[in-house]
Amino acid sequence: MNIVFRVDSSLSIGIGHLMRCLTLAQELRVRATSIVFISRKHEGNLNHVVTEAGYKLYELSSDAVFKCDDEVSLYAKWLGSSWEEDASQTNRIIARLKIDLLVVDHYALDYKWENIVKANCSKLMVIDDLANRKHDCDVLLDQTYGRVVTDYYQLISDKCILLLGSSFALLRSEFSYWRELSLRYRESPKIEHLIITLGGIDKEDVTGQIIVALKDCHLPIGFELTIVMGANAPHIDNVRQLAKNMHCKTQVLVGITNIAEHMAKNDLAIGAAGSSSWERCCLGLPTLMVVTAENQKNNAKILEQNKAVILVAEPIKLSLIKIFSELTGKVVKNLSTNSAKLVDGIGCERVIDRLKEII
Q1: How far apart are alpha carbons 150 and 163 in whole angstroms?
Q2: Which of 16, 161, 220, 287 could pair with 275 in a Cys bridge, judged by C-beta atoms 3.0 to 4.6 Å apart?
Q3: Which residues are CB-neighbours of 277 under 8 A, at least 6 positions away?
């Protein structure tokens, strides 16, 4: 079985799309003859992670002067070319590869792009979590909690197979491995160790804003802080400098590969509302959630409605001061219990089982 992934990472896009595709690729590896990635060479990309994982990578050049009309969505600008050119470039690669499954994970691409490339693959799978555009695909995966079939009404064909909801969340096996220990650890809730993880990029340095805000929060004696940054994050130096001036014990970890272990051993997290939300839910890690991008608002709203997170409002400083003044062991325990119900850590296995039926 030959599988191709079309996915990008960058300072604007972040790394979540690429990481969930790598997670799926890892699970498909034992069943696939060949797995190939097609990714554009954007500023701040993590394409090297693909080759380091042992996959073949075709890099598309990025047009630094590519511009969209004002009416075109923000996501179209993320592509680094027109969708027509992207489809043409992709077709030139896959036409000679005899593809059994093409997986596309990109907010900038829709049915127009998919219709052009479908002729060169047996099956096409889309990974999405916006439900805001039409698709021409055989399988669509949306791991948003509470997502239902009617959300994609008139956006897909009747023949498209839908894999919807957080039961299909694409998490690495390390999260299911640490889940039991993490949940057991939270049976006696504490507020002594906090982990901050705002994604692999954090372009706007929200991490720095949070560190500054925490200096004015009432934190328990002996409080310890762990800050996790991606290797390509543009504000690492500033975060390290701010961390040195914290009144509590603080460590900054960059580019780590055992994030699940660190999450499992912390009492509380401040995290973004992107795909890492499902990682924290799997571990029952109580979270103060920060919305760092427009496409995260719906996810944050759903999680707050399910009492699985506490949203950090603007301004961040005043919001955090208020949250920590009211935070108790009971509140933390409830957050853990409610979030753990949403994700069990074996969503990737469910996706693989469905794909085996289709391919």
Answers
A1: 13
A2: 16
A3: 271, 287, 289, 299, 303, 309
**Domain shared by 268 and 161, yes or no:** no
* Neighbouring residues of 211: CB distance < 8 A, sequence distance ≥ 6: 196, 227, 239, 242, 243, 246
* pTM for the whole structure: 0.93
CA distance 284 to 291: 19
Q: What's the CA gap between 156 and 140, in Å, rounded?
A: 9
| pLDDT score recorded for residue 70 | 46
* Ranges of residues in the chain whose predicted pLDDT is under 50: 70-71
> Which residues lie across from 290 on neighbouring strands?
272
Q: What is the pLDDT of residue 65?
A: 54
Q: Can you list the pairs that 294-302 forms with residues at least 24 positions away whose Cβ atoms lie under 8 Å?
A: 294/74, 295/107, 295/129, 295/130, 296/272, 297/273, 298/144, 299/129, 299/144, 299/145, 299/273, 299/274, 300/273, 302/144, 302/145, 302/146
Q: How far apart are CA 47 and CA 39, in angstroms?
A: 7
CATH, residue 47:
3.40.50.11190
Indicate if 185 and 297 belong to the same structural domain.
Answer: yes
Alpha-carbon distances, residue 290 vs 35, 74, 127, 204, 316 (angstroms): 35, 21, 23, 12, 9
Q: Does residue 132 sit in the same domain as residue 206?
A: no
Q: Select from 28, 49, 246, 226 the least CA-distant residue to 125.
A: 28
313/92 Cα distance (integer angstroms): 46
Residue 66's pLDDT is: 60
Q: Which residue has the tokens 């693989």?
A: 352
DSSP label of 144 = -
Residue that has been written with the tokens 């090297």 in this structure: 48
Whether the CB-CB separation of 348 and 24 falls below 8 Å is answered with: yes
Tokens representing residue 67 in the block: 């511009």
d(CA 346, CA 27): 11
Residue-number span of the structural domain to which 197 is assigned = 173-341
